[in-house]
Design goal:
403 residues; alpha+beta; Uridine Diphospho-n-acetylenolpyruvylglucosamine Reductase, domain 3; Vanillyl-alcohol Oxidase, Chain A, domain 3; 2 domains; six-stranded antiparallel beta sheet; 11 helices; 14 strands; globular
């Protein structure tokens, strides 16, 4: 994550790179794939494509495997298979003592296994993830783009998919992203659409296709997931300055409109003079099916209340180019996020959970987990790392001990 102090940048301590741990191998029955932490998701999908398989992993190719999985991980397959971490069957770990162990849901390290499914990097160094594979490397996937005149219909579609579409068809997933460019007075509405079947659904995305919405461009097609990932990586260039924030809400049409309006107006009011600024907000639909998968495979620390689903887990993202603009963007990100959270709370639309992998510096991620789960995480951390090696020396990320 692009967070000074959280990712090993501008901090003291040890930066431990797993870049060379890039082994990937399939089990003999092809039901699991063993993945080294030096891999990115594009590497995993490209490897599995050769065997007509996929995995419950990241939706952006250059995202690293360990970061996504230790924070839980949202996937295109999540409504069918839960968090990406719910699909880990074994972790190979190096403990602070130097002991190498394997943690599963049923062995002597089952508490560590549970903690690693969303508890971050406070417990050990994971040197291998064994993941369930997904049959079929080809899916229906692609990105549609809409112009500003279609904003109302687009937001209607976002709400309807979150409320009705995603719960009705777990094979369908969507990433609705609104991008705004203040210096150009331009806002673009995009939707990455995904359908896990050889046969396309005529209904899953009817609110994002003609006659309801006519995209100005649409790459949606039946293709290998690895090919889609490779093509879309180019749309998200590395090397830019970045800021993230996360928030969550229940699914409500008024809340979608309020979030949209508050975010767009906040960015344009506060950051119109920042060179090359691009800001976006993404609504990520989260269904009961998504959240129900964890209990089937050992549970996880996030403990999101399934009864209140569906949710939107939202991510705000700002990119810019000049270091001289850092302070202004950081301040605006805090102010806009505070305004959004205040508005959601005032109308009763807010939801507690904060998704670690989209969070920004200072956001209380672990405090959004159930209190009992946080107590349990702290006890597990103390058990496996009593000297706080992975808290005090390995400084990146959100630390259980500090929550």
């Amino acid at each position: 994550m692009p967070i000074p102090g959280y990712n090993g940048i501008d901090n003291s301590g040890i930066l431990l790179s797993s870049s060379n741990l890039t082994a990937i191998s399939l089990s003999s029955d092809k039901s699991t794939v063993s993945v080294g932490p030096g891999n990115r998701w594009r590497d995993v999908y490209s490897y599995l494509k050769q065997s007509d398989l996929a995995a419950v992993g990241g939706r952006v190719g250059h995202v690293g495997v360990p970061g996504l999985l230790l924070g839980g991980g949202i996937s295109f397959y999540s409504s069918q298979r839960g968090f990406a971490s719910d699909n880990v069957v074994k972790y190979q770990c190096v403990l602070s003592s130097g002991l190498v162990v394997e943690a599963t849901a049923t062995n002597a390290y089952s508490d560590l296994f549970w903690a690693l499914r969303g508890g971050g990097n406070s417990f050990c160094i994971v040197t291998r993830f064994d993941l369930k594979t997904v049959p079929g490397s080809k899916v229906w996937v692609g990105v549609a783009q809409y112009d500003q005149s279609q904003a109302k219909g687009y937001l209607d579609g976002v709400y309807n998919f979150g409320k009705y579409g995603a719960p009705a068809d777990p094979k369908a997933a969507i990433i609705p992203t609104i991008l705004t460019f203040p210096s150009s007075n331009l806002t673009i509405y995009a939707a990455a659409k995904f359908y896990d079947s050889q046969t396309n659904s005529p209904h899953a995305f009817e609110n994002f296709t003609a006659p309801k919405l006519t995209p100005v461009a649409d790459s949606y097609a039946y293709q290998p997931l690895s090919d889609y990932i490779a093509a879309t990586d180019a749309l998200q260039p590395l090397g830019l300055r970045q800021e993230f924030r996360t928030l969550s809400s229940i699914v409500n049409r008024d809340s979608v409109q309020l979030v949209h309006d508050t975010f767009i107006s906040g960015v344009n009011t506060k950051l119109s003079t920042v060179a090359n600024l691009q800001a976006s907000i993404t609504f990520q639909p989260v269904t009961k099916d998504f959240l129900s998968q964890s209990a089937k495979t050992g549970g996880n620390p996030q403990g999101v209340d399934v009864s209140k689903a569906p949710f939107f887990w939202m991510v705000e993202n700002w990119t810019w180019t000049q270091p001289s603009d850092d302070a202004a963007v950081h301040a605006a990100a805090d102010e806009i996020t505070a305004a959004l959270n205040g508005m959601l709370q005032a109308h009763g639309y807010d939801a507690k959970y904060l998704y670690m992998n989209d969070a920004g510096k200072g956001q209380p991620v672990f405090q959004s987990y159930p209190a009992a789960n946080l107590v349990k995480l702290k006890a597990i951390r103390f058990k496996y790392d009593p000297l706080r090696i992975f808290t005090n020396l390995l400084v990146g990320g959100w630390k259980v001990a500090d929550a």
